[in-house]
Design brief:
It contains two helices and seven strands, in the order H-H-E-E-E-E-E-E-E. It is elongated. By secondary structure, the chain is an alpha+beta fold. The chain has helices at 10-18, 24-39; strands at residues 46-48, 52-56, 66-67, 70-71, 75-87, 90-104, 107-118. Helix 1 (10-18) packs antiparallel against helix 2 (24-39).
Amino acid sequence: PFDAARYDGLVAFLNQFHDGEIDALGVSYAIIEALFNSEFSHSSKWDVDCANCSKVATGAADTGADTAGTADFPVSFQCHQRATYDHKDIYSVAEAKAKIVVLSRSEIHVELYSYYVSG
């Protein structure tokens, strides 16, 4: 089971989503950022990009609209966040990726999560 409490600040975002204060896209951003930050070792030489989440078609149940903080469920997002290190002769990339499936305000799945560092 996923323990949201171990990711700094994530519980607050999940509670806001559950209460309808943020939408499915907003909670997906919060999840990928929490996952990335839990694995990534920050230093001043890394350039950390903002997280990116793109809606993925979920089939017949996908009605498309996400309005006024309420979403038609299920809705899925392909999300990633990356950082690059380019200093002297060293170039590295750190990236977290996941498909985040929001089934309802009380059920979210993180699928195909990966984190890697290359270079």
